[in-house]
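Can't paste images in this forum, so I'm doing it all in text. The chain is below; anyone willing to post the predicted C-alpha coordinates underneath?
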Amino acid sequence: MQEKLGFYELEIFNNLLKCVSPKEMAYKLNVSNHTIAYHRTKLYRKLKVKNAKELLAKYGSSGSPVSFISEEKPFVITLHDDAPHGHSFRFYPFNNSNVMINSGDLFTVNYSFSSNIDLDVLQIDFVDLTERNGIFFAMLSPNVPLKNIVKADTLYSGSVTIFITKTANNAEPNANLLNIQSLFSTPQPTITFTKLEVIKN
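Text version of the structure:
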Protein backbone atom coordinates (compact mmCIF):
# COMPACT_ATOMS: atom_id res chain seq x y z
CA MET A 1 0.00 0.00 0.00
CA GLN A 2 1.30 3.46 -0.90
CA GLU A 3 -1.48 5.79 0.23
CA LYS A 4 -0.62 9.47 0.48
CA LEU A 5 -1.29 10.20 4.13
CA GLY A 6 -0.52 13.31 6.16
CA PHE A 7 1.12 13.16 9.57
CA TYR A 8 -2.06 12.93 11.68
CA GLU A 9 -3.70 10.54 9.23
CA LEU A 10 -0.77 8.13 9.47
CA GLU A 11 -0.71 8.37 13.27
CA ILE A 12 -4.46 7.68 13.43
CA PHE A 13 -4.08 4.83 10.94
CA ASN A 14 -1.38 3.14 13.04
CA ASN A 15 -3.36 3.65 16.23
CA LEU A 16 -6.58 2.28 14.73
CA LEU A 17 -4.71 -0.87 13.73
CA LYS A 18 -3.71 -1.21 17.40
CA CYS A 19 -7.36 -0.65 18.46
CA VAL A 20 -6.50 2.58 20.31
CA SER A 21 -9.57 4.68 21.12
CA PRO A 22 -9.99 8.21 19.69
CA LYS A 23 -9.78 9.65 23.21
CA GLU A 24 -6.44 7.88 23.80
CA MET A 25 -5.16 9.09 20.42
CA ALA A 26 -6.01 12.69 21.30
CA TYR A 27 -4.12 12.34 24.58
CA LYS A 28 -1.08 10.67 22.94
CA LEU A 29 -0.88 13.27 20.15
CA ASN A 30 -1.73 16.21 22.43
CA VAL A 31 -4.60 17.38 20.22
CA SER A 32 -8.36 17.77 20.66
CA ASN A 33 -10.96 15.05 20.05
CA HIS A 34 -12.27 17.25 17.22
CA THR A 35 -8.84 17.15 15.50
CA ILE A 36 -8.78 13.36 15.71
CA ALA A 37 -12.32 13.13 14.27
CA TYR A 38 -11.46 15.52 11.42
CA HIS A 39 -8.33 13.63 10.33
CA ARG A 40 -9.98 10.24 10.85
CA THR A 41 -12.74 11.26 8.41
CA LYS A 42 -10.10 12.31 5.86
CA LEU A 43 -8.27 9.01 6.40
CA TYR A 44 -11.43 6.94 5.79
CA ARG A 45 -12.15 8.89 2.61
CA LYS A 46 -8.63 8.34 1.24
CA LEU A 47 -8.63 4.63 2.07
CA LYS A 48 -12.21 4.19 0.78
CA VAL A 49 -13.51 2.68 4.01
CA LYS A 50 -16.56 3.69 6.07
CA ASN A 51 -15.29 2.94 9.56
CA ALA A 52 -12.54 1.38 11.70
CA LYS A 53 -13.98 -2.12 11.22
CA GLU A 54 -13.61 -1.86 7.44
CA LEU A 55 -10.11 -0.38 7.82
CA LEU A 56 -9.01 -3.31 10.00
CA ALA A 57 -10.51 -5.82 7.58
CA LYS A 58 -8.75 -4.20 4.63
CA TYR A 59 -5.33 -3.39 6.13
CA GLY A 60 -4.99 -5.28 9.40
CA SER A 61 -2.92 -8.12 7.93
CA SER A 62 -0.76 -6.00 5.62
CA GLY A 63 2.86 -5.40 6.46
CA SER A 64 3.85 -2.97 3.70
CA PRO A 65 4.94 0.58 4.52
CA VAL A 66 2.67 3.55 4.09
CA SER A 67 3.89 6.57 2.16
CA PHE A 68 4.31 9.39 4.64
CA ILE A 69 3.45 12.64 2.85
CA SER A 70 2.48 16.07 4.06
CA GLU A 71 -0.28 17.48 1.88
CA GLU A 72 -2.35 20.45 3.07
CA LYS A 73 0.32 21.50 5.57
CA PRO A 74 4.02 20.71 5.70
CA PHE A 75 5.16 18.01 8.11
CA VAL A 76 7.17 19.96 10.68
CA ILE A 77 9.33 18.19 13.27
CA THR A 78 11.69 19.44 15.93
CA LEU A 79 14.63 17.13 16.44
CA HIS A 80 14.98 16.36 20.14
CA ASP A 81 18.20 16.31 22.14
CA ASP A 82 19.58 12.79 21.96
CA ALA A 83 23.03 13.18 23.53
CA PRO A 84 25.58 11.93 22.73
CA HIS A 85 24.06 11.26 19.30
CA GLY A 86 23.01 14.82 18.38
CA HIS A 87 19.32 15.57 17.76
CA SER A 88 16.78 13.09 16.43
CA PHE A 89 13.14 12.31 15.70
CA ARG A 90 11.90 8.70 15.43
CA PHE A 91 8.63 7.26 14.11
CA TYR A 92 7.14 3.93 13.09
CA PRO A 93 6.59 3.97 9.29
CA PHE A 94 4.40 0.88 8.84
CA ASN A 95 0.66 0.44 8.53
CA ASN A 96 0.29 -2.05 11.38
CA SER A 97 2.01 -2.93 14.62
CA ASN A 98 3.24 -6.40 13.66
CA VAL A 99 5.96 -5.62 11.12
CA MET A 100 9.52 -6.72 11.80
CA ILE A 101 12.42 -5.30 9.78
CA ASN A 102 14.73 -8.03 8.50
CA SER A 103 18.32 -8.07 7.37
CA GLY A 104 18.38 -7.71 3.58
CA ASP A 105 15.28 -5.50 3.35
CA LEU A 106 15.53 -2.41 1.11
CA PHE A 107 13.65 0.86 1.62
CA THR A 108 13.42 3.89 -0.64
CA VAL A 109 12.94 7.30 0.99
CA ASN A 110 11.78 10.18 -1.24
CA TYR A 111 11.99 13.58 0.39
CA SER A 112 11.79 17.37 0.14
CA PHE A 113 12.80 19.34 3.24
CA SER A 114 14.25 22.53 4.63
CA SER A 115 15.86 23.35 7.99
CA ASN A 116 15.57 26.46 10.12
CA ILE A 117 19.33 26.39 10.87
CA ASP A 118 22.53 25.30 9.12
CA LEU A 119 23.44 21.64 9.65
CA ASP A 120 26.57 19.64 8.88
CA VAL A 121 24.36 16.72 7.85
CA LEU A 122 20.78 15.44 8.07
CA GLN A 123 20.75 11.66 8.01
CA ILE A 124 18.30 8.79 8.26
CA ASP A 125 18.46 5.19 9.46
CA PHE A 126 16.45 2.45 11.15
CA VAL A 127 16.94 1.72 14.85
CA ASP A 128 15.75 -0.78 17.45
CA LEU A 129 15.06 0.94 20.77
CA THR A 130 14.44 -2.36 22.54
CA GLU A 131 18.09 -3.36 22.24
CA ARG A 132 21.10 -1.42 23.50
CA ASN A 133 24.84 -1.73 23.11
CA GLY A 134 26.06 0.33 26.05
CA ILE A 135 24.60 3.82 25.62
CA PHE A 136 23.72 3.22 21.95
CA PHE A 137 20.53 1.75 20.53
CA ALA A 138 20.86 -1.10 18.05
CA MET A 139 21.19 0.19 14.50
CA LEU A 140 19.33 -1.83 11.88
CA SER A 141 20.92 0.04 8.98
CA PRO A 142 23.87 2.33 8.30
CA ASN A 143 23.35 6.11 8.55
CA VAL A 144 22.33 7.42 5.14
CA PRO A 145 22.73 11.18 4.55
CA LEU A 146 19.67 12.92 3.14
CA LYS A 147 21.95 15.91 2.66
CA ASN A 148 25.45 16.95 3.71
CA ILE A 149 25.95 20.67 4.45
CA VAL A 150 22.38 21.83 4.91
CA LYS A 151 21.89 25.59 4.63
CA ALA A 152 19.07 27.25 6.56
CA ASP A 153 15.82 27.98 4.69
CA THR A 154 16.92 26.10 1.56
CA LEU A 155 14.74 23.38 0.00
CA TYR A 156 16.44 20.03 -0.69
CA SER A 157 14.83 17.16 -2.60
CA GLY A 158 15.97 13.69 -3.53
CA SER A 159 15.78 9.98 -2.92
CA VAL A 160 17.93 7.55 -0.93
CA THR A 161 17.97 3.79 -0.47
CA ILE A 162 18.37 2.23 2.97
CA PHE A 163 19.74 -1.31 3.15
CA ILE A 164 18.88 -3.20 6.33
CA THR A 165 21.91 -4.96 7.84
CA LYS A 166 20.42 -6.25 11.12
CA THR A 167 17.11 -7.90 11.93
CA ALA A 168 15.00 -6.17 14.57
CA ASN A 169 14.76 -7.81 17.99
CA ASN A 170 10.99 -8.30 17.64
CA ALA A 171 7.91 -6.89 15.90
CA GLU A 172 7.16 -4.20 18.50
CA PRO A 173 6.94 -0.69 16.99
CA ASN A 174 9.86 0.53 19.16
CA ALA A 175 12.07 -2.15 17.63
CA ASN A 176 11.39 -0.94 14.06
CA LEU A 177 11.74 2.85 14.00
CA LEU A 178 12.88 5.22 11.31
CA ASN A 179 15.31 7.75 12.79
CA ILE A 180 15.92 11.25 11.37
CA GLN A 181 19.04 12.72 12.90
CA SER A 182 21.36 15.72 12.85
CA LEU A 183 24.75 15.71 14.52
CA PHE A 184 26.00 18.18 17.11
CA SER A 185 23.67 21.04 16.20
CA THR A 186 22.74 23.78 18.66
CA PRO A 187 20.00 24.89 19.06
CA GLN A 188 17.55 22.11 18.21
CA PRO A 189 16.79 22.09 14.48
CA THR A 190 13.26 22.27 13.13
CA ILE A 191 12.88 20.35 9.86
CA THR A 192 10.00 21.06 7.48
CA PHE A 193 9.17 18.21 5.11
CA THR A 194 6.94 18.91 2.15
CA LYS A 195 7.49 15.32 1.01
CA LEU A 196 8.51 12.22 2.94
CA GLU A 197 7.77 8.81 1.45
CA VAL A 198 9.03 5.58 3.02
CA ILE A 199 8.55 2.64 0.66
CA LYS A 200 9.65 -0.96 1.08
CA ASN A 201 11.08 -2.28 -2.21
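The longest helix spans residues 33-47. Residues 61-65 have pLDDT under 50 and may be disordered.
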